[in-house]
Amino acid sequence: MRLLIADKLHPRAVEELSALPIEVIYEPDLTKESLEERIAGVGVLVVRSTPVTAAALEKAKTLHLIVRAGAEYQTIDVRAASRRGIYVANCPGKNAAAVAELVMGLLIAVDRRVVDAVTSLRNGQWRRGEYSKAEGLLGKTIGIAGMGAVGREVAHRAKAFGLTVAGFSRSLTPMKAAELGVVHAHSLEDLASKSHILTLHLPITERTRHIVGKRVFAALPPRAIFINAARADLVDQAAMREAVVTRGLRVGLDVYPDEPRDKLEYASDLFGPQTPGAEASGTWSPSDSEGFIYGTPHIAAATDQSQLAVATETVRVIRSFLLEGHVPNVVNVTTTSIANFQVVIRMQDKIGTFANVLSVLKRHGINVEEVTNSVFEGGGASCAKLRVVSRPSEMCLQEIRAFDEVLHVDVVTLPNLA
Ligand SMILES: NC(=O)c1ccc[n+]([C@@H]2O[C@H](COP(=O)([O-])OP(=O)(O)OC[C@H]3O[C@@H](n4cnc5c(N)ncnc54)[C@H](O)[C@@H]3O)[C@@H](O)[C@H]2O)c1
Ligand SMILES: O=C(O)[C@H](O)COP(=O)(O)O
């Protein structure tokens, strides 16, 4: 089987994967288009940001597994993969600490205007008076939108800074919030109204796209700090820029709607003065009463520690798939079965017995949802458990029992766990 790594992956993981019984091809510079040309004949695919499209999957006749070496999997057409029976897995939480570290870095950088202070020193200035004007963080409230892996890491660090933490998340109940030691918010606007600092750690979905707009910015107090190291499309960019001008919003970003891929240039007016008509010169820096935007070029997850953790998890997923047939962190296998009954069949472990049983079920119109088969020591007998939607009739069971190799047949009703 062939394993294609279509993005940069920590060298230690590439080395470990090469020790597995699989041919490893490392092509870190593949793009959406070139992946389409290289995917034929591949059994396992590893990607980070390289998109995996339905068109590529059309050509992936031998593909079994796609591993996204990162937190999310929006860059993969999971529906198209599911239609072809291809497993998709990710590496949840493995880069959370790195993202939280950058969030804290952006927070302090914004509050103290660190970037401008350094730029000023680089220009041979000593503007101690100007850069001594800062608000401080102690005792303020940080609102965390999305209390998943990253959100929790941010909460942990924020508490160490003497901040009160408030949280809003899909499954965060008041009781859960109390357990985590955070103030519960019932909506994003409620969170903003409770916070001096708002940081986003939500995934991008149909429900979260542009979830942060005018109303959320209006609910924040003047001169609030807003951090987005999650996804740019969570935010109405025009509303954010307007809040910088009208409410003195101070912003720290790691993600952008128009991030360049495969280019080293990024011409943007985001980091200069936001007031319409204001002159953007190389020496412009915001005053202590003005809103502004700081940014990093999508580097939140990019520490060596985090890349190694993600790569190690990638190896674990692939090793488990290859050696145990089990896919950890799989995201596209249904977790709710529609099966209502389990047919338990003990039989002699002989060629054709199982096929005979299946052909009887087929003749009686019984759809098998799941199958497990255990072979007993010595290899003489096996026990198959077939989960089915409808109860097989007595006649169907008698036909199965009639095979000489079938030792015992039973039907049990599955518990309804819903
Ligand atoms: N800048 C980077 O390099 C970088 C790195 C890692 C992750 N990220 C981004 O950060 C996001 C968070 O990462 P994570 O690892 O914490 O993910 P996660 O899945 O662990 O957490 C996401 C949280 O959002 C909540 N959520 C989902 N939909 C919601 C909704 N409609 N309303 C309210 N809450 C909702 C979930 O319940 C969960 O608690 C990722 O989705 C990714 O977009 C960015
Ligand atoms: O989703 C993620 O894990 C981050 O955005 C990091 O993406 P990257 O692996 O492409 O750096």
Automatic annotation (TrEMBL):
Domain of life where this protein originates: Bacteria
InterPro entries for the chain: ACT-like_dom_sf, ACT_dom, D-2-hydroxyacid_DH, D-isomer_2_OHA_DH_cat_dom, D-isomer_DH_NAD-bd, NAD(P)-bd_dom_sf
Reaction catalysed by this enzyme: (2R)-3-phosphoglycerate + NAD(+) = 3-phosphooxypyruvate + NADH + H(+); (R)-2-hydroxyglutarate + NAD(+) = 2-oxoglutarate + NADH + H(+)
Pathway: Amino-acid biosynthesis; L-serine biosynthesis; L-serine from 3-phospho-D-glycerate: step 1/3
Residue span, ACT domain: 342-418
Keyword Cell membrane recorded: no
Broadest EC class assigned to this enzyme: oxidoreductase
UniProt cross-references to SUPFAM superfamilies, sorted A to Z: ACT-like, Formate/glycerate dehydrogenase catalytic domain-like, NAD(P)-binding Rossmann-fold domains
UniProt keyword terms in alphabetical order: Amino-acid biosynthesis, NAD, Oxidoreductase, Serine biosynthesis
Cited Gene3D superfamilies: 3.30.70.260, NAD(P)-binding Rossmann-like Domain (3.40.50.720)
EC number per UniProt: 1.1.1.399, 1.1.1.95
Pfam families in UniProt: 2-Hacid_dh, 2-Hacid_dh_C
Function text: Catalyzes the reversible oxidation of 3-phospho-D-glycerate to 3-phosphonooxypyruvate, the first step of the phosphorylated L-serine biosynthesis pathway. Also catalyzes the reversible oxidation of 2-hydroxyglutarate to 2-oxoglutarate.
Recorded family membership: Belongs to the D-isomer specific 2-hydroxyacid dehydrogenase family.
Protein's name in the database: D-3-phosphoglycerate dehydrogenase
Organism of provenance: Pendulispora albinea
